[in-house]
Amino acid sequence: MLLLNFLSNHISTTWDGLNFTKTTLTKAAEYINSHGTPEQKQTCTDKSVESCKNKWNTFKSSYTQVVCIKNGSGLTWSDKDSAGISPETQHVWNDLVKANPSIAPFCNKGFIHFMKIESM
C-alpha cells in the first residue's frame, strides 16, 4: 500500500500519537498520485490531503481495534484470517463485541496492515 509505505518512511514528521502534519500528508498525496499504476490512474481519482488523512485515521482505528482483540480477549488472532472464532469461542466474541462494537467487522476479516503499523 503506497500510503503506508510513504508514511512509515516519514514517521519522524508525526506529532501527538502518530498524527502526521499537513505537509507530510500533502507529500503523501503527491507521491501516491505520481506512483500509481497506469490502470489505477485511469480508474481512480487523484488522492487529496483529506483522503490521505482519512485513510490513515481508518488504519489507526483498525489497528487499535485489533490490539483490543489481541490483548483483551483470549482469542487467537491472525492478521490474515481474523479472530479465529469457533463454536467454542463464540460466546467470548459476543461478549467482546458487546463491550466494544467497533471490533465486530474483524470477526471474519483479518487486518493485513497490522505489522506495518505496529512497526511505526
UniProtKB/TrEMBL annotation:
It comes from the Eukaryota. This is Myb/SANT-like domain-containing protein.
